[in-house]
Amino acid sequence: MTMVDTGLDADLIARTRAIIPQLAARAEEAAALRHVREENIRLMQAAGSLKIIQAKRNGGYGAGMRTHLEVVASLAEGCGATAWVAGVTMAHSWLLSHFPVQAQDDAYANPDSVVAAVIGPRGMATKTADGYTLSGFWPFASGNRNSEWLLLGGVVKNEAGEVIDEGDFLVPTSAVTQLDDWFVNGLTGTGSGSGKVENLHIPAHRFCSLPAVVMGQSPGASAHGADEWNLRCAPVPVLSLALTGSAIGIARQALRDFPGLVKGKTIAYTADDQYSHPLTHIQAGNAAMLIHEGELILFHCADQIDEAAREGRDLDFNTRARMRLDCAQGVRRLLEGVEVLFHASGASGIRLSSPLTRAIADLRAINQHGLLNLETNQELYGRIVLGLPQNSPLI
Question: Helix (H, G, I), strand (E, B), or coil: what is residue 388?
Answer without folding.
Answer: coil
